[in-house]
Specification:
The protein has 152 residues and is an alpha+beta fold. It is built from four helices and six strands. The protein has helices spanning 15-21, 32-41, 112-117, 140-150; strands at 3-8, 23-25, 47-52, 59-72, 96-111, 135-138. The structure holds a DNA duplex (12 and 12 nucleotides).
Length: 152
DNA sequence: GCCAACGTTGGC
DNA sequence: GCCAACGTTGGC
């Protein structure tokens, strides 16, 4: 089993929305590196740190898990969607995404500032300078520390 | 709202 | 294939 961090803007889709929905397809990723993690490495059962970006404060809000392997992202075919991609066809989809399922919300949101304060987390991708990747791998040791910091 | 860092596009 | 211009991300 592997561990991941996935970013979402809570104004658009928050951990609370996922708690209500139970599951969601992670549509809208339009970055090849992020897509490749989803298509090539993510497996059902992998655990995900749900990260709130562009938030006050930004940070890890809870845990989700991969509940279905990557399938074509429907939003690429939807002309009305901001994620529409004219180059994509049903025969040759450009974008795929996994389905994730709510696991738990942290008792305490672990803010980006807290992550930076914790020296043992310094290697996390999300803390690297200029890191914008919205789907990224996480070490098990870092995942375990995050659970403790989150109070679960 | 600003802007640094990064990814993508397109001219050559 | 290089790289300047442009668009986006995301913290602050």
């Amino acid at each position: 089993m592997k561990y991941w961090l996935m970013k979402s803007e809570p104004d658009v889709y928050s951990i609370d929305t996922l708690a209500k929905d139970k599951t969601t397809w992670w549509e809208g990723v339009r970055n090849y590196q992020a897509r490749n993690f989803m298509t090539q490495q993510m497996e059902e059962g992998d655990l995900v740190l749900f990260y709130h970006s562009n938030a006050e404060p930004p940070g890890v809000a809870g845990i989700a898990k991969v509940s279905h392997k990557a399938e074509p992202d429907k939003s690429q075919f939807d002309k009305k969607s901001e994620y529409y991609d004219a180059k994509a066809t049903k025969e040759k989809p450009q974008w795929l995404c996994v389905q994730v399922e709510f696991v738990q919300k942290f008792k305490h949101l672990v803010s980006l500032a807290e992550l930076r304060e914790n020296k043992s987390l310094a290697d996390m991708v999300v803390l690297q300078k200029g890191s914008r990747l919205s789907v990224q791998p996480v070490d098990k040791k870092h995942f375990d520390i995050l659970k403790k910091l989150g109070g679960v």
